[in-house]
Design brief:
About 20% of the residues lie in helices and about 30% in strands. It is an alpha+beta fold. The protein folds into 2 domains: about 30 residues; about 160 residues, Phosphatidylethanolamine-binding Protein, CATH 3.90.280.10.
Length: about 190
């Protein structure tokens, strides 16, 4: 009898876990950052306008002069076999609000600053962010929020053209294609 009760408890916990995961993905609840192979082979990035884990400069936020200027991203130790990079900046405290999504970037060591606000650039294709604009828009939170720039090294190109996608949709498109992941954290507000 004790084993049967334990089995029922385990099954109930498994069902509860599935419901929580589905609720988070469907309802826009807080979703964890997708970071397979984080730092594999010393794959890393640096955003030189602010330190990792520090405050994003106000010039890149709200009404700052660089609010719509994408930051430079230095990329090191790109894994062999990388066909493209995906660069994304999200606000993890605002249901993974996308501030910047750059796909099909070539495997280069520098994504330069101030990419034009167009879908096609010489450093990849930019998507529509959650402000409704193509390209980058900086932070403008009501309180202190956490922002993460993530670079995914992919073994293929992403087969989409323009448009607006959620973070969960973008992650779904790259699953099973991520060779390595690197991230940079900033705060603002």
């Amino acid at each position: 009898m004790r084993i049967k009760s334990l089995l029922i408890l385990v099954m109930a916990l498994a069902v509860a876990l599935v419901v929580v995961v589905m609720f988070n993905e469907v309802s826009g609840g807080k979703v964890n950052v997708y970071e397979p192979n984080l730092g594999l082979g010393r794959f890393s990035i640096k955003v030189p306008i602010y330190g990792n884990g520090s405050t994003i400069p106000s010039s890149y936020a709200c009404n700052g002069v660089n609010f719509t200027s994408s930051p430079p991203v230095i990329i090191s130790n790109i894994p062999p076999g990388t066909k493209s990079l995906m660069v994304i900046m999200i606000d993890v405290d605002a249901n993974m609000f996308i501030h910047w999504a750059l796909i099909n970037a070539p495997p280069v060591s520098l994504i330069p600053p101030n990419l034009p606000h167009s879908f096609n650039t010489s450093f990849g294709e930019q998507l529509i962010n959650d402000f409704g604009n193509v390209g980058f828009n900086g932070p403008c939170p009501p309180s202190r929020h956490t922002y993460i720039i993530i670079v995914y090294a992919l073994d293929s190109m992403i087969n989409i053209k323009g448009g607006k996608y959620t973070y969960v949709q973008l992650v779904g498109m790259i699953k099973n294609h991520v060779l390595a992941t690197a991230l940079w954290i900033g705060y603002y507000g």
